[in-house]
Design goal:
Layout: E1 2-3, H1 14-21, H2 34-47, E2 51-55, H3 58-69, E3 75-79, H4 83-86, H5 91-94, E4 99-103, H6 111-117, E5 128-134, H7 147-159, E6 163-167, H8 171-178, H9 182-186, E7 191-195, E8 206-210, H10 212-224, H11 233-245, H12 250-265, E9 270-271, E10 281-286, H13 293-302, E11 305-306, E12 308-310, E13 314-318, H14 325-340
Parallel strand pairs: 1-11, 3-4, 3-5, 5-6, 6-7
Antiparallel strand pairs: 2-8, 7-8, 9-10, 10-13, 12-13
Helix pairs in contact: 1-11, 2-11, 3-10, 6-7, 12-14
The protein binds ligand TLP.
């Protein structure tokens, strides 16, 4: 089985399992789990923030972070296709009472877009109080922000008096692809979230980073959302192991994705510009004269290649810890055979 549906499907390695097995634990609701503390301290240090909080998932991390930044009735400005509003089950509206104003294209937006979207105080309208960024951008194709463009847009948001959130689910992929440290990417933001359970290969867990006051508030929200756990050092140990051993290797996933993209682009029926693949995510489209995305995903699955279909003609393939170069070669060959037959 060559599972390219997502980098969330990774299996913990033997060494990671060993680190989990011997983890020192305590009741984290009492703040007594030493392994969780170590993970939170490392996360705060890596993002250059005062404090951090371990939570079960990236979705919970984003929604708690937004909950610390905005009040019910506020509006969050966000790029097209962003996870925070498109893939979190409506949680922004249902749990935080937020509405979203979507700007830019393909997940990207500019300082001018931010200024145009901001509305000065007016009791007829929802206050625009937060701008949320995503780096790397999943639905946009795993691209990495240009640091200058990101800084321009965050500066524009600050000049309007808005607060800033970064969904950095794959921020370590951004670090490895750009050679720019996570701390630099995180610098303009009030809250930064990242996932341990994607390319980093841990079985679960995400972290929210920010200043002491905001992380204090995040503790309350985590309790309200039902995300406060007990002897959770077992999972934090996997996260620590991932941060210590699985960051540099993300470069292999990026190289595999580039190789796979080049091969896919040569298959008749696939529309893909390989140069747009910057990290471990490939989105590609199908021409109208071949089978549709769901049918291709089904035919591929029957031959052991798992992809995510989205809409009628769009598919995603994601490389990760459990995908080798040979897997990419085999997957491209199988997709080629299906599409050409
Ligand atoms: N993304 C998942 C799916 O939900 C789409 C995936 O397979 O890519 N931010 C970003 C940018 C994400 O891509 C994801 C997960 C999350 C947040 C949420 O993480 P989890 O799944 O831990 O809630």
């Amino acid at each position: 089985m060559i599972d390219l549906r997502s980098d969330t499907v990774t299996q913990p390695t033997q060494n990671m399992r060993q680190a989990m097995a011997v983890a020192e634990v305590g009741d984290d609701v009492y703040g007594e789990d030493p392994t969780v503390r170590r993970l939170e301290e490392l996360a705060a240090q890596l993002t250059g923030k005062e404090a951090a909080l371990f939570v079960p998932s990236g979705t919970m991390a984003n929604q708690i972070a937004l909950g610390t930044l905005a009040q019910a009735g506020d509006e969050v400005i966000i790029g097209t296709g962003s996870h925070c509003y498109l893939y979190e089950g409506g949680a922004g509206a249902a749990l935080n009472g937020l509405q979203f104003q979507v700007i830019g294209s393909n997940g990207k937006f500019t300082a001018d877009d931010v200024r145009a979207a901001y509305r000065p105080d007016n009791h007829h309208q929802s206050p625009t109080t937060v701008v949320a960024f995503e780096n790397t951008h999943n639905r946009g194709g795993g691209w990495v922000w240009d640091l200058n463009e990101l800084q321009d847009a965050t500066t524009a948001a600050r000049e309007c008096g808005m607060r800033l959130h970064l969904d950095g689910a794959r921020i370590f992929n951004a670090q490895v692809a750009s050679n720019i440290p996570v701390k630099t990417w995180a610098e303009p933001f009030d809250t930064v979230t990242f996932c341990l359970s994607k390319g980093l290969g841990a079985p679960a867990g995400s972290v929210i980073c920010g200043d002491q006051g905001r992380i204090h508030r995040a503790h309350r929200l985590r309790k309200m959302f039902g995300g406060a756990m007990r002897q959770i050092g077992i999972l934090a140990a996997a996260g620590l192991y991932a941060l210590e051993h699985h960051v540099e290797r993300l470069a292999e996933d990026h190289a595999n994705a580039k190789l796979l993209a080049q091969m896919l682009a040569d298959i008749p029926g696939i529309i893909l510009e390989p140069a747009t693949v910057e990290t471990n995510i490939i989105w590609f489209n199908l021409t109208a004269d071949v089978l549709d995305a769901t049918a291709l995903a089904k035919a591929a699955q029957e031959r052991g290649v798992f992809l995510s279909a989205s809409g009628k003609r769009s598919l995603r393939a994601v490389t990760h810890l459990n995908i080798t170069q040979d897997d990419c070669l085999a997957a491209a060959r199988i997709l080629g055979e299906i599409l050409i037959s």
